[in-house]
Amino acid sequence: MEIVEQQTEFSLDRSASHLLHRAQQFAAEQFEGLDGVDITLRQFAVLAAVREQEGCSQSELVKTTGIDRSTLADMVQRMEKNGLIERRQAKLDARAKSVHLTEGGRTSLESAMPMVQKADEAILSMLPKNRRRAFIGILGLLANVGDIGFDELDSPVDVKAKKKTNDAGKKKKKSKKDKKKKKEKD
């Protein structure tokens, strides 16, 4: 007996590519709606990537940010002109340039950080709490940023709570071992 796969009619409300595009639009609107941000979301991503990998190459920035090579080259040139970053001769390769934050770039990044976090919170608040970590993990897979461990996604409060729980469990295990050793000695 042959199993025939049923095909459903195409619908935008079930199209992954369309829904991701709409979600991206919503995310960009959250960032753009914040007062006091003097950089774009893409510039923020570049500044954050440079802070995480001070002295990185533009090729590394392409991989980290997902911005295509030619767009990133134009952005880096404008951001350097605006005093947000600077390019220096790379230490290991005389042909390459390394990218560094300037004081102005660090200031812009730090002033935008609370607003980006607020935008992220607005996005995540639309999801049930028990699905937020999975959502971020799935986005990481789709963005091909590697394996995001769930521990990295926990809030500092969640991490502290887990540590206390784990430490308490270790103490209990240790005390059981101590009791066993004590019985063996007796």
How would you summarize this macromolecular structure in one to three sentences?
With 186 residues, this protein is mainly alpha-helical. The chain is 63% helix and 5% strand.
Task: Characterise the protein shown here.
By secondary structure, this protein is mainly α. It contains eight helices and two strands, in the order H-H-H-H-E-E-H-H-H-H. A hairpin with a 7-residue loop joins strand 1 and strand 2. The chain starts with 15 loop residues before the first helix and ends with a helix. 12% of the residues are buried. This is MarR family winged helix-turn-helix transcriptional regulator. Residues 159-169 have a biased composition (Basic and acidic residues).
Number of helices: 8
Euclidean distance between termini CA atoms: 71 Å
Strand content: 5-15%
Class per helix and strand makeup: mainly alpha
Q: If classified by CATH, what would the architecture of the domain at 12-130 be?
A: Orthogonal Bundle
Q: Layout of helices and strands, plus pairs?
A:
Blueprint lengths: L15 H17 L8 H12 L5 H8 L3 H13 L3 E5 L7 E5 L1 H22 L7 H11 L7 H4 L2 H30 L1
Antiparallel strand pairs: 1-2
Helix pairs in contact: 1-5, 2-5, 3-4
Highlighted features:
Arc Repressor Mutant, subunit A, two-stranded antiparallel ribbon, 8 helices, 5% strand, WH-like_DNA-bd_sf
